[in-house]
Amino acid sequence: MKKTIILLAASGLGLAACDVDQTKNAQLPDVDVNATGGQLPEFNVTPPEVTVGTENKTVQVPDVDVKVPAENAQ
Question: 23 and 44 in contact (C-beta within 8 Å)?
Fold first, then answer.
């Protein structure tokens, strides 16, 4: 359940970053036996620009000494 909520939240965040402009209104079809006409709405979607790169860094890590006691020490 938590994974589903996280997935939906991530999807919503991705869609929130897009710029959506409706370019054509919807029109319901005439109701008859042939069901002619009708039109779905059209949208222009402009996704956000994302620039991804890498960077080399030198990171100092501490020196760790581990002293393991002998198994038969008394």
Answer: yes
